[in-house]
Design brief:
single chain, about 15% strand, Udp-n-acetylmuramoylalanyl-d-glutamate--2,6- Diaminopimelate Ligase, Chain: A, domain 1, alpha/beta, NGG1p interacting factor NIF3, four-stranded mixed β-sheet, about 50% helix, about 280 residues, 13 helices, binds fe (ii) ion
Length: about 280
């Protein structure tokens, strides 16, 4: 299967019509048997060749435009923010500082290191980020909202983390969903699943949700400095970090199911936990 076809199947899965800013084919080519991983390094490319794989599909951006434009895909968090009731101007403002940090950090990095290695090896190499994260956000959110409705308005934050553990990837992951701000025994209130869109939006984004009636925000991960900020915040609310590898595995397993159904031979590894 050509890398372009793989990309198209990923876009179709997520209901996207264009390749998002953080997703890219670095070395195009035909793949029959690929390693699928959350991260990659040059060793992974070399191992893939040694073990007879003819392609590598990674989740996180590996260089080039996909890495340099990661901050742009964060604009897609505006959809989740405004849907939850945050005004668009306030949502943009809340995103700004984290977006600035991501842009400046990636600007420092060597964008061609990994792509150049894959080119030298003539190894078809691509990353699929936002399409997988969007699928993952939907899968988790549908499950969580349905189970919260069944539990009723008294559902606690602890109930919410228990509900997350009903999803196979969360049950299989070594990390557990963690309540990093707030009380597990408190009511969860309105819950927002803020997973897709580059990376987490930082403390300002979580506060924006809280300010507009969201009781509990779920993110994949959150930096310690942001967690400490939020614990001191005048706006009160709960933050659950669901777990990075558990969440990313949900999106990658969805993609793997689609690609396998279309005949690709895939080996998930490097942090992808089973989805069944
Ligand atoms: Fe992800
Ligand atoms: Fe990730």
């Amino acid at each position: 299967m050509h890398t372009d076809r793989i990309m198209q199947l990923a876009l179709d899965m997520a209901g996207l019509t264009e390749v998002p800013e953080d997703t890219q084919v670095y070395v195009p080519g035909k793949i029959t048997k690929a390693l699928v991983c959350i991260d990659a390094d040059t060793g992974l490319l070399s191992i893939a060749r040694d073990l007879g794989y003819d392609g590598v599909i990674v989740h996180h951006p590996q260089g080039d435009e996909a890495m340099l434009n990661l901050h742009l895909v964060m604009n897609r968090q505006l959809l989740t923010l405004t849907k939850a009731g945050v005004l668009e101007d306030e949502a943009r403002e809340a995103l700004r500082s984290r977006q600035f940090g991501v842009e400046r950090n990636n600007h420092m990095r060597n964008w061609d290191y990994m792509p150049s290695v894959a080119r030298l090896m003539r190894m078809p190499f691509m990353n699929i980020h936002y399409p997988c994260d969007l699928m993952m956000e939907r899968i988790v959110d549908v499950h969580v909202q349905q189970r919260l409705t069944e539990t009723g308005p008294a559902a606690t934050v602890q109930d919410l983390t228990d509900i997350l553990l009903e999803i196979p990837e969360f049950a299989h992951a070594k990390t557990r969903p963690a309540v990093v701000v707030g009380d597990p025994a408190a009511p969860a209130g309105k819950v927002v699943t803020a997973f897709a869109g580059g990376t987490n939006g930082g403390s300002a984004v979580v506060e924006a949700y809280w300010r507009h009636g969201v009781g509990t925000v779920m993110t994949l991960h959150m930096e310690v400095a942001d967690i400490l900020n939020l614990r001191q915040s005048e706006v009160k609310g709960t933050l659950v970090v669901a777990g990075h590898m558990a969440c990313d595995s949900v999106g990658l397993n969805a993609l793997i199911r689609v690609l396998r159904a279309n005949g690709l031979d895939l080996t998930p590894m490097g942090g992808i936990v089973p989805g069944v």
